[in-house]
Every structure is written in structure tokens, then in C-alpha cells.
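Target protein
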Amino acid sequence: MATVTNQVFRGVDGKMKKAPAELPALGPKEVLIKITHSGLCASDIFFIPYGIALGHEGVGIVEKVGDAVTQFKVGDRAGGGYHRNSCGLCKYCLSGKDIWCYQRTIYGEGDYSNATIANYYVGVETYLHKIPEALASEDAAPLQCAGATVYTALIDTIKPSSRVGIIGIGGLGHLAIQFAAKLGAEVVVFSTTNDKEAEARRFGASEFYLLSEPEKVTKPVDVLVFTGSAYPDWSKFLVKDVLSRAGTIVPMTAPHGDIALPSYPLFFDGFNLHSSLVASRAEHDDMLNFAAHHDIKPVVEKFEMSEEGIAEALGKLTSGKMRYRGVLVAK
């Protein structure tokens, strides 16, 4: 394939601006995707100052494949954009935990001119994911990061009999509620205000409490999933009547500042901290199929994939008014 020009969006003076980027000839195992939809994530805001091509929640149509590609054909729908490659030989790759590979390529750590808020995205075939027919592309796009992040953390820490506490009902939280409920857990939601209770219950929550009043919970939760934009008062949650002894804390977002956990209950009540990133490849595929089977969908707001549309979406995201995932739609 002759070298052509791709249009990506990079951070320029605090904004996302369209910029040209070369689209080189495809490698034998690479796939060219014409992007139709891309989610907008807080991670994209984080990388604006660094000038890289932005976007990692892409879905589109396969336009061309390398001569050794066997899993995709022209016309297929495919998604991806965060986890882009790994060595395939280390203990992590060989045990299905390739996201932890020391030679991984993930969004923000390499491949700086290739991204999903763009006309085209180039992916390695085994790091792309077929989109189930039951999932619309606008719903599948946020699942490429947000859905994969939530799903892998939950399947690592819960079982069907678990009581799962979820802090926050935003971009990650509303998906965490749905996945946890469909995985068979009893879901307990903590939120800053009562006005989201009805919505939380529609997503699958069986109990709802104010973030300021976790002590009112009728029974301790086994796993506490944090999805908010600011850390809670951990001294109120690391109590054995709120989080059960030997319970697990799962932070899914990284607000500014350190996680300051009270050491005494952490030690004497046996609380655990479970770190998680986006899913490895097999879990990512499982997540998409699970979401399609159980009709799990993000709540999305759509914006045009243009400088004007992106500016509007960023404004809603940074002001906390996005409900709940922004999706950029190619013109």
C-alpha cells in the first residue's frame, strides 16, 4: 500500500487539533481500520499536553489487511486502541496476562502517531477485537477501554455470591454496576447525591447509599470498587462493618494525589488493594461477548469527530456533565 496521509487529533495549546500523520505500508499482520466511532476518555485529556495522537476507544470497518492476516477480512467491524502489542514470549503473555508484558505497547507509552480519534487506525490483528453483531458501534466504542477496564477488575475479584460496593455512577461506574449485576453479584452503590438512585437501580443496583453515609449499609460488602473522580474518605469505608474483613479495594481511576489508606484497619482487618488496568486480549474478547449476550450498554452522548465536536465533548467531560461516555462519530 502506498504511503498516504492520515488525519489524527493531537494536543495543541491545551486543545485537540487535527493534524496530518503518515500512514505507512501495512505489515504482514497489521489491519487498517477506517474509524467510524471513538470514545472520549479522561485518559485522552491527560495526554493532551504531550502532543501525541489521541484516542484509544476505536471502532470501525476493516479496509485493508496485511498478507498474513487470518482473523479479519475487509468489511469486518473491529475495535481496539489501548493495548497494541506485547512480546508473546514472557510469563505474562504465556499466561494470558499480556497487558503486564514488559515489552507491551499501550496507549501513551508508544506508537505515538497512531490513535483512534482519526480517519484511520492501524492495529496488529491479534490486538484487535471483532465486534459482536448485537453491539452497535457507538456502544462498542466505550467498551474498548471503559468496559475492558471494569470487566477485568470484576472477574479478578468477585464471584456470583459477592456483595460488591461501587463508588460513583459515572463513565466507569454505570458500566461496573451492569457488569457486576450480570455476573451474579449483589450490587451496592455509593453516590454523592440521592438523585441517581433510580438510575443506579435500573442499571442493576440492589442497594443505594450516600457516599457520606456508608455506615448505613445493612451488611458489609466483600469488594469495594472505586470509580469516582476524587478519593472518598477512606476512614469511613475501611471499617469492618462497611468492607468485610479480608475484603478487597479496587481503584479503577487515578485522581490526583496518593491513595492514603488508614494502616491500622488495613492490617488488622486484612483489607487488600487490587490494582487493575485494561483487560488482556482474551478477557477483552470475553467482555464484548458477555456485554452483547446480556445487553450491557454504556449510556452515550454523541459528538461529531471534528475540532468543534471534540471541543464540545471535552467541555462536558471536564465539567462533569457527560452522561456517561462521550462518543465521537466520524463525518
About this structure: The chain has nine helices and 17 strands. The chain has a mean pLDDT of 96.
